[in-house]
Amino acid sequence: YFILCQSRLIYVCFYLFVYLFSVLGFVLCASGDLVKVYSTRTEEWLHSLQGHTNQVTGITLNPANHLQVYSCSVDGTVKLWDFIDGILIKTFVIGCPLFAIYVSEKHEGVLFLHVSMCFQLVSVHLPKSAEQEVEAKEMSAVSSHISKNPSCTAFGRGVRVHFFFFYFSLKATDKKGAKNAFTCIACHPTDDCIATGHEDGKIRLWRNFIHKKEYTYSTQHWHHNAVNTLCFTPEGTHLLSGGIESVLVQWQYGADNRKEFLPRLGGSILHISASSDGQLFCTSHSDNKITVIESSFKVCGVIQGLVKGDAVLTDLMIDPRSKALVLNGKPGHLQFYSLLRDKHLYNLDIVQQEYIYEAGLDQFEVVKAAFDIKGSWLATVEERGKKSSDLEFFLKLWAFDERTQSFVLNTTITAAHTDRIISMCFSSSEETTMLVTAAEDSQFKAWCQGADDQNFWSCDFVGSYHKLNPTNCSFSADSSLLAVSFQEVITIWSPDTWEMLTTLCQPPGVIRDLCFGRLSCSKYLLGTTTKNLLCCWNLLTCELEWSTSVDVSKLQPDPFSENVAAFSYQSKHTDLFVFKPSEPRPLFTNKNVCSEKVHRAVFVPREEPLNSCDESTQWLNRSQLYFLTQNMDLLTFSTATEEDRMLSSSKQLVIDDSVAVTPFYLLLGKHRQQQQKLNTQSHPVADKPQQPQGSVTIKELLHTPAHVLPAASVLCSMFVNSFLISNTGVQQDPLRYFVHINIFLFKVKTLVNFPKLMKYELLYL
Hints:
The protein is mostly beta strands and about 775 residues long. It is about 10% helix and about 40% strand. It has a 5-stranded mixed sheet with strand order 6-7-8-9-13, with no helix packed on it. A 4-stranded antiparallel sheet has the order 2-3-4-5, with no helix packed on it. A 4-stranded antiparallel sheet has the order 10-11-12-14, with no helix packed on it. The longest helix is centred in the last third of the chain and has 20 residues, at about 665-680. It starts with a strand and ends with a helix. It is found in: Nucleus, Nucleolus.
């Protein structure tokens, strides 16, 4: 039987599917349009299953072969994979977006899918075909208008062939004001028992629903908020539950309210999975983390992706030392993430206060961060309070410690400004280090290390312009100039003497972004305004060089070349333009990069410059552009050369001819060679029998790993037909027929009993 859990309120959340196979030591999880495979022992990423063209929404183990896994996607396909070798076995085309996938051990060759049409649950019979891509046409609806949340559908032990539908009714609210809406569901693996989670944090166990008696339920309660997920252990002795408290609760089945707790796991628990032997559990969290837990309730591994928070308030930065991507991570932390290894390195605690997971509570957040050019200093700003009257903020300077290979707090400035800091930047000079902060108190300040004592920072200069609020600040490439924008006016300062050199009058509009050109374009200054203008000034003539009307949401210069990237949001999509300040005509244009607005971007230096790029991707030679969307998706551009390297994850195994000769070849191959030689001598080439049509299928069979092949019964008829001799009308020696049939029977027996060994033998025959 299967259970549908329906709620009046649509439950929407970021859902990370995780499936655990502890016997083999693998964890599989859906990540974008990929399925990533990790090791439970080393916590390392092994490879990715790459083939879907849209977001993967569900994965499940093939009950007929535990070395294979099904995945479904919004692209409308179901794919069957060999997840150990990372090989795509077959693609089933469904034709509509898919949101979840389920299998039942009692129904071989049948999948159950959430489809987009009225959110139906349908059963799909998978056709048996030798082709790698096949359309699944046999489909029947099981139920309509089911919940979007995959946790609200579960399959039980399937005591009968047909399905049972159960509709449990609870009032939306009771007299005490409790919220009874269903949020998740799980079926007991051996008993006729169904566990449901609810918005009020209660768990109900339902029984007697198959018999004619009226169903009953018992209630267990610990969670103070909605229960996000439920999972029975394979033996059914325990029930696991999780929610926003980030505590894994283990309930002993049959013993009321006897439970164990595993607290402080990270973000909210979204999904729980148990290995087939019950030795390992894993939980996925809202902060994009997977925790691997032993059955003794001890954490044995953590697989941390790019930490997903509510918003990224800092810019995307690159640590000059480790080349790691740095941005907001856990609440009150900065995360360091290796883009090269696709691995989370560590979190740096900035706020240094315990975070309380409670909605609506005002707590400190990291809102600004910046590195100096050598990576020796890190500046951060943390604040809390939305109103100016309630605002609290601190400016902190962190020094890199060579011994611990991390940043340690050096200076805390409690009253850096009298109002919110909106921009800050370090000078680009390697000789002296200077930090400039601009705030809404109509001032910008320059901070330098003490002349006698280099271990503390102090204010060196305070600047302003007609009591206007500054909006941005930026140093030139050689740190000889500082540009500070005040509303619609840009001021140019000399950091050596703190003399204001000139002002640049801007056409109407407040300055949003400000940056200097690099290398041969260092004489140019770029700015964007709220009036949808992109302007370029020549600092040698102090005149406007050119301007264009474009709504730029993010302006990002490449520190390793003259190129500048501009993201423009219009008509519900974002366009990308890459140009040089000396030439307003774009070098590269990409329309409809994404459907959301881009506010964060960064150029990441390459370890080795690319030399084989075509003209359209020359701007990617020295660095790679990464950008972050409003949906917290981190995207990048890759060249054709890089894509060729990525294809290794979807490799196809081909047997090399240099493999040693097998005993089967010595036994039967010699006879086959003699037979082919005799046929060539006795018959002209024109009379040679044509190859059977099944030879293409046999060739595919020979180039497929034996452990991913279908059952021998499926291949038997196809294999037998491939050995039938065509009728050419030429009288053959009966003895030759007898020898051929005996050899064929020997091959069939070997294929059934030793498929892997026979596969290599057929190759040499």
